[in-house]
Amino acid sequence: xxxxxxxxxxxxxxxxxSIDDFHSxxxxxxxMIREDIMGSAAHAKMLAAQGIISREDAAAITEELQRILASxxxxxxxxxxxxxxxxxxxxxxxTQRIGDAGKRLHTGRSRNxxxxxxxxxxxxxxxxxxxxxxxxxxxxxxxxxQTYLNTIMPGYTHMQKAQPISLAHYLMAYFEMFRRDVERLxxxxxxxxxMPLGSGALAGSTYPLDRESVKQALGFSGITRNSIDAVSxxxxxxxxASCASIIMMHLSxxxxxxxxxxxxxxxxxxxxxxxxxxxxxMPQKKxxxxxxxxRGKTGRVYGDLFALLTIMKGLPLAYNKDMQxxxxxxxxxxxxxxxxxxxxxxxxxxxxxxxxxxxxSAQRGFINATDAADYLSKKGVPFRExxxxxxxMVLYCIEHEKAIEALTLxxxxxxxxxxxxxxxxxxxxxxxxxxxxxPGGTAPAAVKMHISEGLxxxxxxxxxxxxxxL
Length: 470
Description:
With about 475 residues, the protein is mainly alpha-helical.
């Protein structure tokens, strides 16, 4: 029976597959064409340097690879499911164009270590893009915090008013979240940064490959230490998706608060119309759709992470076809988190904070009660007794529809004889804020120090900001 298959692995098979579309992944992995060409060019040059193929063949390969890439950039290349994946597509096209030289490219290489290489390069670039977007957001948070250093607002626990804080202090809380995200991504990248070519299908290669030269040519910091692990490892995909999930969780929390704050009940912030939509029936509506979509897309990225974990959980060593499913999930996570960061940053730049409403809200809800208790404690009253006295005072205020600071000194003394005229100076919103001047506190002086440290951190990071390469 004649072999009519054009597959590069067709020697063993005499029948054409009837499920090419099912096997094919080129609709997903074609985005790695640049990375595949980069890796193939480095591999070809190394093969020539080691005397495994001729320098003429290597030159023909690398020159044609660049022409293929140029054709792709010009939109002249069309993929189809019959191409199976990007790796076989490029090798097949190369062979069609330069003949036997193209057939020599795959010497000492397997698709298993080839795809591991492409994925690592692609994800390092994607992680760098994520880090760049996080830096822009961190810069925006720092500058906005400087603007609202003295803006007082209510802080919440359990969604109940708790204590007064500054808007700057609130914004710097998110600065810290995204700072940890940057640190996680750098750590994640360090475990991507190992070059797997030379691992072959799983056992290494009998050819005298120079793995170190390929590592250097591609800009990796090291080489993988075990050939089985190198081709079966997708921890770096899972770890990136995990980092992306945490970033999305932080964005989602921020969006949730902006959504709440933009309601008439809060009125703390106004989201620009460019990031809002109207209602098809209610003409007065201004819906915070961009923030809601980011919140919703968080679940999508979580799904990508769980898909990767589930794909890998039962796989024996080494490579299995299940692992072809890794790319769609991790690429989706990357696209989603990078797009959401971009949209959030633009939306954040348009926010208008209603500082008067924040201050007015802080004047309600007895959020200076803790400071009243601290006043008594500093005067020598055991804190638990002070806490009980202020609790009774709050109940009295509720019954008489009064704020704590509106009580007369005689009313204060109903709950403790320790109260004196100076209580009024201790329970103003400004005093409550300024008194919390410990490092990490909400006092303007402490927040100013935090912002200054954040600016120094960001400046140091920007000096080594990663580009979209290794």
